[in-house]
Write a structure and sequence with these properties.
ChsH2_C, 2 domains, about 30% strand, OB-fold domain-containing protein, Peroxisomal Thiolase, Chain A, domain 1
């Protein structure tokens, strides 16, 4: 447990996928009881690594904050790789300094709490990214109640030259070995014990952690302005919200009706949503349940209104697409085995060229000729305009928007979400590139449409994920330019 000498929150961001699954459609397909609302669904080309990149881009922007980050922690219960570090792909996509430590906190939902606490206690500015993709067996509670999302937070302090958006007043954690949820390696879904068993255990440990944190900060429960409770044990979360003695009007919504519960990422997503709305000087109490409990107390500052995330959580929820077919969801998740394309299997990415071109492949870094100013995508040693050799300057392009110059609707090329949409993009400030258009329908592929870049998993071949960049439409709620 730490107190007021801890660092504060200096940036945050979140990512809610575009796609939605209507619970009523699941019930209709399986003949089960009806469900209400929707859940967020990661696209066929998204995973916890790509979602982590999107959330972190929202937190860091394009300015000097990226240069200040000294550590990167990626927390997820569903890592894209085992053995191999997933955080290094996030590190490469963000273009962080090579000396920045990038490590995973993976395997359990509680790792999200661990990443937040570790980042807050770090003596150097630290980026904590919480990302999760929740999948259960068809018709099960995990599928219905789950969701996909990511959130990112940078903890630092005044000494790091960035304004503090929320001071971390205190935190406390209680650890307890509770066999209420488990999943063996390779299993498709978690198993859960009968909920009544753990409900009162979680209520007890949450009470201990909340009391200790408030005592250390010298505060009463009545001082709490936003009471946030996160965890996969729905009954326990509801009981904590009801029985913690806080003012009822301070209890925040858990977003399960529109996004679902994104597990590891839920504490981050709910905290980001509160920060989008909180006023200066308000006290936020974040309670996280899972194998014990953890509490973080944050006090917002006068700097928050001017430095909120570029994409509010509510705007991302509102910008979600129409409900997708349930069969498509099952196919994307590998729960419906569809006939593969009648053509040779795709080639996997190869390690040597991927490493040599890491700046382009992961960071989408172009080159600008120092002689004539021509921007080139992909970068090259020889300028395509004036033919100058080795006179190039690196130019990051991940935050540069563009306009569709022309497009193709390809009904022959294989894609898990047909048809394949390919666009040629003219970027603001120069440069042209051809790439796929994602999170879109045929109606979005029009000449003159505004697009932005997003980090995605293009294909998995021979057990290797190939990450690169795609374009996506700029929608309502995405019109605020990202700043660093």
């Amino acid at each position: 447990m730490e107190g007021t000498d801890m660092a504060g929150l200096i940036a945050y961001g979140a990512h809610v996928p575009y796609h939605r699954l209507a619970r009523a459609d699941v019930a209709a397909a399986l003949g089960t009881a009806g469900g209400r609302g929707t859940r967020a669904v990661a696209g066929y080309d998204e995973d916890t690594t790509s979602m982590a990149v999107e959330a972190a881009r929202g937190a860091l922007g394009q300015g000097g904050l990226r240069a200040r980050v000294g550590q990167l922690f990626l927390a997820t219960a569903t890592p894209a790789y085992l053995d191999k570090t997933n955080a290094t792909a996030v590190h490469a996509a963000l273009g962080l300094d090579e000396h920045v430590l990038a490590v995973d906190m993976a395997g359990s939902v509680r790792s999200g709490l661990g990443a937040l606490v570790a980042a807050a206690r770090s003596p150097v500015p630290t980026l904590a990214v919480l990302s999760d993709l929740r999948t259960g067996l068809p018709g099960g509670a995990e599928e219905i109640a789950g969701g996909d999302a990511a959130a990112a937070f940078v903890f630092g302090g005044h000494r790091n030259g960035a304004p503090v958006l929320a001071e971390l007043l205190a935190h406390d954690t209680v650890s307890d070995e509770i066999l209420d949820r488990w999943r063996l390696p390779g299993a498709p879904a978690s198993r859960v014990w009968e909920e009544r068993f753990a409900e009162q255990i979680y209520v007890s440990v949450a009470e201990k952690a909340l009391t200790a944190a408030l005592d250390h900060a010298g505060l009463e429960r009545g001082a709490i302005d936003h009471f946030v409770v996160a965890g996969l044990h729905a009954r326990a979360c509801a009981a904590v919200r009801r029985g913690s003695g806080v003012r009822p009007e301070t209890v925040t919504a858990d977003l399960t009706g529109t996004v679902g519960n994104p597990g590891t990422a839920q504490p981050g997503l709910l905290l980001a949503d509160v920060l989008d709305r909180a006023r200066p000087g308000e006290l936020i109490a974040l309670v996280v349940l899972g194998d014990g409990a953890g509490v973080l107390l944050l006090r917002t500052t006068d700097a928050l209104p001017e430095h909120r995330a570029a994409r509010p959580v509510a705007a991302q929820i509102a910008a979600g697409g129409p409900p997708m077919p349930y069969a498509a969801y099952l196919s994307w998740r590998g729960l419906l085995d569809r006939e593969p394309p009648r053509r040779p299997d795709p080639e996997p990415p190869y390690a040597p060229p991927a490493h040599r071109r890491a700046g382009w492949k992961y960071g989408f870094v172009a080159a600008r000729c120092e002689k004539c100013g021509t921007r080139q995508l992909p970068p090259d040693r020889v300028c395509a305009s004036c033919h100058a050799v080795d006179s190039m300057t690196d130019e990051p392009m991940d935050a540069v928007r563009g306009t569709v110059a022309t497009f193709t609707v390809d009904r022959l090329a294989y894609t898990p979400s047909p048809p394949m949409l390919v666009v040629v993009v003219d970027y603001d400030g120069g440069g042209r590139f051809r790439c796929q258009l994602t999170d879109a329908t045929e109606a979005d592929a029009v000449i003159g449409a505004r697009v932005e870049m997003t980090f995605r998993r293009t294909v998995t071949a021979s057990g290797i994920h190939n990450y690169f960049w795609k374009a996506r439409p700029v929608r309502s709620g995405d019109d605020k330019e990202t700043v660093g």
